[in-house]
């Protein structure tokens, strides 16, 4: 049985006061939830603050939104996976579509970041997913396979032994138009099958999250699909009640 994971990606939002308030709301309201893992990914400047606060309740974990493809050294502006781990992160989002499209991250760079996260003892959350144009051209599986293959090439056949994959169709992110549970399930199944070709055991344990316009209202049906093991949540993770509602929808206990 794979325990669901719900992860909030706060992106480049918030100030110290918002971070404090959001954390308080989430930490109080998730107290009674069982059978779900929860994590939040604040902007870098707030990572230490968040991990300090979260250490008190021990229920919610912290993740970085990205890590450098390099280890420590003369790389101005970069934040290494080791640093994220050192301040208490357990996860790192890798290859979010905003990093790929806005900051030019190639599949190869994403794979290097994935490797750095694993080496630093972080659990990488690899984001994969097709654009609207890819989807319209019937290229969803081809794109997802290419993105997964780059990680296998860099990290070997055991790459997903300790990792999470997030299927995030680019057209669904922030659009208010989530994939239907059936269409998301189809891609999640495909992802698990691709991983199973390298390692049946890794595939069986791999948590595959869905991301793209998840709300408390559509979460239960999405998370009810066989191969959907929780969600990566953008916009709705910025409101405590909405995020907790999504976490509640993922509860199996
Ligand atoms: C995201 O950016 O990872 C995301 C899923 O965003 P949203 O939930 O706002 O669609």
Task: Characterize this entry briefly.
This protein is of the alpha/beta class and 253 residues long. It has 11 helices and 8 strands. The protein has helices at residues 16-29, 47-57, 81-86, 97-102, 107-119, 132-136, 140-155, 181-198, 200-205, 216-223, 240-250, and strands spanning 5-9, 37-41, 60-64, 91-94, 123-128, 164-167, 207-211, 230-233.
How many helices? 11
Largest β sheet strand count, sense and barrel closure: 8 strands, parallel, barrel
Number of structural domains: 1
Strand content: 15-25%
State the secondary-structure class: alpha/beta
What is the CATH class designation? Alpha Beta
Task: Evaluate the radius of gyration.
Answer: 17 Å
| CATH topological fold name | TIM Barrel
Task: Kindly state the percentage of residues in helix.
Answer: 40-55%
- Please tally the β strands and state the result: 8
Order of helices and strands: EHEHEHEHHEHHEHHEHEH
For the record, what is the CATH homologous superfamily label? Answer: Aldolase class I
The ligands found in this model are: phosphoenolpyruvate
- With strands numbered from the N-terminus, the spatial order across the biggest sheet is 1-2-3-4-5-6-7-8
Assign an overall shape. globular
Give the termini separation. 12 Å
Which structural traits does this protein have?
253 residues; alpha/beta; TIM Barrel; eight-stranded parallel barrel; 8 strands; 45% helix; binds phosphoenolpyruvate
């Amino acid at each position: 049985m794979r325990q669901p994971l719900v992860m909030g990606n706060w992106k480049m939002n918030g100030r110290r006061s918002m971070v404090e308030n959001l954390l308080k709301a989430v930490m109080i309201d998730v107290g009674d939830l069982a059978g779900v893992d929860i994590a939040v990914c604040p902007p870098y400047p707030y990572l230490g603050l968040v991990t300090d606060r979260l250490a008190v309740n021990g229920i919610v974990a912290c993740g970085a939104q990205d890590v450098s493809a390099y280890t420590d050294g003369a790389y101005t502006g970069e934040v290494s996976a080791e640093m994220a781990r050192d301040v208490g992160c357990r996860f790192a989002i890798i290859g979010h579509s905003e990093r790929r499209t806005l900051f030019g991250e190639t599949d190869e760079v994403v794979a290097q970041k994935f490797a750095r996260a694993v080496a630093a003892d972080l659990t990488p959350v690899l984001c994969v997913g097709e654009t609207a144009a890819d989807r319209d051209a019937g290229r969803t599986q081809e794109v997802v396979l290419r993105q997964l293959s780059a990680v296998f090439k860099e990290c070997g056949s055991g790459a997903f032994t300790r990792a999470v994959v997030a299927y995030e169709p680019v057209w669904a992110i922030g659009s208010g138009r989530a994939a239907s549970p059936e269409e998301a399930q189809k891609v999640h199944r495909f992802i698990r099958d691709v991983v199973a070709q390298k390692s049946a055991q890794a595939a069986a344990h791999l948590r595959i999250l869905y991301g793209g316009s998840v709300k408390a209202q559509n979460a239960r049906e999405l998370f009810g699909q066989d191969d959907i093991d929780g969600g990566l949540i953008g916009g709705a993770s910025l409101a405590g009640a909405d995020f907790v509602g999504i976490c509640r929808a993922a509860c199996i206990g």
